[in-house]
Amino acid sequence: QVQLVESGGGLVQPGGSLRLSCAASGSIFSINAMGWYRQVPGKQRELVAGITSGGRTFYADSVKGRFTISRDDAKNTVYLQMNSLKPDDTAVYYCNADTGVPPRLLEPWGPEKGPYEYDYWGQGTQVTVSS
Length: 131
Description:
Blueprint: E1 2-7, E2 10-12, E3 18-26, E4 33-39, E5 46-52, E6 57-59, E7 67-72, E8 77-82, E9 91-98, E10 119-121, E11 125-129
Parallel strand pairs: 2-11
Antiparallel strand pairs: 1-3, 3-8, 4-5, 4-9, 5-6, 7-8, 9-10, 9-11
């Protein structure tokens, strides 16, 4: 089991910055990738940024050049630095730990394979970008 605790959300004006943190505990050794997803009402949860245990990073096109994912292995913590925030970035942001071998960042899991059983999720943190 993996437990994830997020922090750092809030209200920010357009053009501003926020940093989200996600601290992992439990079966840390089983994590092969971590990521940040976001969701708005009525839409599917979408990948924002991810990082594998080998250090490869992935970003949604909409956040490239503005968001940076990083990790501190000594603290078992993943960060999402969000700069130049836009109102469209408003969402609930969820931290994800993927214990799949390989993780979905490296090998997508299609619906034909059934439910994905290797995910752990944080409780979510609200990010609101508004003037």
